[in-house]
Amino acid sequence: MSLSPDPWPHAVTLDEALQTVITARQQYHTIHTQVQQLREAWASQYAPLLQDEALHKQTVHQAEATLRTLAIAIYQSTDRKEIAPGIKVREMARLIYDPQEALTWAITHKMALMLDVKAFEQLARVTALPFVTRTTVPQATLSPCFPGELPAASPVPEEPSKGTPQCASPESTRNRADREETYGAHGSLEDVV
Q1: Buried b vs exposed e over 138-171: b needs ≥16 C-beta within 10 Å?
Q2: How far apart are CA 146 and CA 119, in angstroms?
Q3: Given this model, what pLDDT does residue 122 score?
Q4: pTM of the entire structure?
Q5: How many angstroms separate the CA atoms of 42 and 159, rounded?
Q6: CB contact set of 140 (below 8 Å; sequence gap of 6+)
Q7: CA 20 to 30 Å from 163, out of 24, 57, 108, 142?
Q8: Residue 187's pLDDT is what?
């Protein structure tokens, strides 16, 4: 079994590329199903241990919070930062301010300003701005289930993923290009034409 994908041939037809994707998806789904079964079997076998771990983790967090509270109380009454071996108090600077006043100051001084890209691009879609150019870029999207691609037999019942047919791996149904079609290269909403 190869751990790296086969190198993509330089000259390939659309049908060959489609068959390569179908084969890769089927191979992925087979391995993914095996991994899921092993994870579920492990979690089932070690359920009491996992529950103990969660309980002990919660106990540790509560005990540490109590110790921190006591350390701060001792510090406040004694001004000592070294409370005990392994227990120290440090003073952290916190800034308290009115966000609206801070924004007014930032605008006045033309400092500490950052564009909210998502909000700006939503406005730019409905507002004609002279410095914004709208372009159309072609993008290829892939169906989660191609004609001729057999649904993967899955003995493990999986939660349906938002209408995604079971013949494709979850990772292959929404690739970067597909996400960018909806949300843009910068994570912002784009119009699909």
Answers
A1: eeeebebbeeebeebeeeeeeeeeeeeebbbbee
A2: 36
A3: 95
A4: 0.54
A5: 19
A6: 177
A7: 24
A8: 47
Residues 6+ apart with CB under 8 A from 167: 25, 29, 144, 145, 146, 149, 150, 151, 152
Spatial distance between the Cα atoms of 148 and 146, rounded to a whole number of angstroms: 6
Q: What's the whole-number average pLDDT of the chain?
A: 82
pLDDT at res. 167: 62
Q: What is the pLDDT of residues 16-51, one digit of tens each?
A: 999 999 999 999 999 999 999 999 999 999 999 999
Counts of helices then strands in the chain (DSSP H, E): 6, 2
Q: How many Å apart are CA 117 and CA 133, to the nearest integer?
A: 15
**137 residue type, one letter:** V
The closest of 185, 169, 180 to 30, measured between CA atoms, is 169
